[in-house]
Amino acid sequence: MPVLFDQKETSTPVGLAGRIAASARMTSSRMSPDIDEWLREKRRQPFESTLITLEELTRSPGWSFAAETGNLCHRSGRFFTVEGLHVTADDGEAWWQPVLVQRDIAILGIIAKEFDGVLHFLLQAKMEPGNIGMVQLSPTVQATPSNYTRVHRGGPARYVEYFTEPGRGRVLVDVLQSEQGAWFHHKRNRNIVLEVTDDVPVHRDFCWLTLGQIHRLLHRPNVVNMDTRTVLGCLSGVAPEPVGVHTMTEILSWFTGHRSRQRLSARLVPLNRLAGWRRGADRIAPEDGEGPFSIVGVRVRAHTREVTSWRQPLLAPHATALAGLMVRRLNGRLHALVRAEALPGYRDVVELGPTVRSVAAGRPAATADQEELLEHLLSAPPRRVRYDVVQSEEGGRFLHAQTRYLIVEAPDDFPLSVPPEYAWISIGQLHALQQHSYYLGIELRTLLFCLSAL
Fold first, then answer.
1. Are residues 169 and 252 in the same domain?
2. What angle do CA 420, 425, 430 make, to 5 degrees?
3. Is residue 85 situated within a structural domain?
4. Cα 421–chain centre separation
């Protein structure tokens, strides 16, 4: 397989970027367990996540439908709610959909520590009710304030004090990032990596892994969870002045122009007023039986969690999504074809997405430009496919949500001229933008992290 990365961009620099590169080269460590056997052991534990009716979900204290709005809420007023959303685009398109509203800013935190001169990262084998395989590798801490302040009256979240108490270590990255703009309303998480020098007692459900070991696991489906991918993706070391066929000033101007011109209007509405949706016995679903997703309830048992049993709603997609990225070398540097994408749940309306992403909740069919690009991605010969793995999305809010992440190298005769909402941006420039909030959507962040594993 050809090497995609420009050696000038990835030659070992001084400082953090060099340490990240060294960790990425290390594919074994005395600090790590036999990861295959370790994960098999964790997945053999008696976890349960069972679909239940909405009546059972709301029968006992916990979740209920609000009398006036029909919104699905927790009795504490915390965690998250399922509400309605009415969306109107500037071209007159309009649709209704349920949306997850989580106002708490969650901590997605990873502890890093150097062993034998190499950075290692403390990951957790975490059970989430919506996970494929039940257990996946999550950050050291993956918790909302509702969790770590123990609104659920359960046990404390392990290691959260490293991220809530000052002075625990050296911050390597700390940035607010969005999640799925089609399913969440203004959701954001704090992505943080903290390097420590003190001894860290390692609980049996946690282990140290190098970046190289994590990269290898990225080639398997449903092992490295969404939150680990986004946090470590933000850690990418970048050159002081990343360059590409466009300057950073040109890119920022193009991006800001799209943000300023978008007139996508999204307003929260009562769940019981959603046109085209029906609350049945076992789910909230589109009346026509189709559509992108439903809202369901699950009953959960997990003895490794702070609370060992609970009920909760989950968003259940009806199909596997696709996030496809076209890449090519321009002036000797690897570039990606990205799209300025407007989604109703984004705080700033527009973030950078992959070349093709499907399916945005409730939206009509893709444009002709997107259809043509999708055809390029799906018809690429195997020699040009650089990455093609199905990965899970967040199992704490979604039931078996999967996305096929696809990276294809464009042929030399692929046109440089692209539609106005697209741009060729170098990988170094994308990594630089990722150090800031709300520039890159979560699917593009995952694709960049997967690209680094090649």
1. no
2. 125
3. no
4. 22
Considering the domain architecture, whether residues 373 and 416 belong to the same structural domain is answered as yes
Answer for the pair 10, 21: CB distance below 8 angstroms, yes or no: yes
Residue 240 lies in a domain: no
Name the 3-class secondary structure at 215: helix
Tokens representing 146 are 């509702």
Residue 415, domain CATH: 3.90.79.40
Give 3-state DSSP helix, strand, coil % of the chain, rounded to 5. Answer: 25, 35, 45
Written as tens digits, the pLDDT of the chain (454 aa) is 333 433 333 333 348 889 999 999 999 999 999 999 999 999 999 899 999 999 999 987 789 999 999 999 999 888 899 999 999 988 788 999 999 999 889 999 999 999 999 999 999 999 999 999 999 999 999 988 877 766 555 677 899 999 998 889 999 999 999 999 999 999 999 999 999 999 999 999 999 999 999 999 999 999 999 999 999 999 875 555 688 999 999 999 999 999 988 878 899 999 999 999 999 999 999 998 888 999 999 999 988 887 888 999 999 999 999 999 999 999 999 999 999 999 999 998 899 999 999 864 444 446 788 889 999 999 999 999 999 999 999 999 999 999 999 999 999 889 889 999 999 999 999 999 999 999 999 999 999 999 999 8
Looking at the structure, tell me whether residues 195 and 219 fall in a common domain.
Answer: yes
CA nearest to 435, candidates 237, 245, 285: 237
Task: Please name every residue paired with 174 in a beta bridge, in sequence order, or none if there are none.
Answer: 192
Residue 97 lies in a domain: no
Whether 286 is covered by a domain: the verdict is no
Domain that includes residue 230, residue range: 17-46+104-234
pTM: 0.91
Residue 223 and residue 348 share a domain:
no
